[in-house]
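Write out structure tokens for PorT family protein.
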Amino acid sequence: MMINRYLVILVLLFGCSTAFAQRVPAWGGGADQQDLSFGFSFTYVASDFKIGKQADFRDAFRDVDGSIVKGRLNSISSKSTPGFGVGFLTRYRITEHLEVRTTPSLIFADRALHYSYVDPSEDVDKKVQTTSVDVPLLIKLKSDRLGDFRAYVIGGLKYTQAIGSKKNSDANLDLSEKLVKNISGFASYEAGIGCDIYFEFFKLSPEIKISNSFGNILLRENHPYSSPISRLGLHTFMFSLIFE
């Protein structure tokens, strides 16, 4: 279902090129005539975890006194959860078809884990609440301009830093109510496609990207929801509207 949605978006982006080719080319606010230009972005974000499990992850979790806190697990899963971001674009032109850009963005996005137990009454969802700043450094490779349309591919690296999180926010909670936490900062790679659409006073760029984190972003703790997991990776889908 998600793949079909991506394909529809791609068809809409690239299917409009014929219509744009028949117009007198717009100026686009002069963005392409400058080596350095600025803009802003609005982004829809959908995130989920890639989960690595301990060999004994199914075992019941016991307290230090041997009492069972949570029973035997069936599975741990993560579904995609929505969020949004706003960012500020800085772009530097290297050649007519190549540029470097960064879009520091404030991202509001929850991440979710679902724990399914042998006893269904113990099933629980754990949200990893995160507000973060993303700082990507990307290379953009552009096609020739066709009327008011230009396609491109983009890729590079991104650093994510959580803000406003409190490591001890669940210090007073029982073991059965503990939260799952991520490390405060980690790197990812990004890759995507998009198109530049030129208007008289500005340039609009619809863009699709995927992002996958490097390494393990789990903050390890000894409680029923962290202990069964060996590693977490973050997978993110982003659809952005960039105004330049």
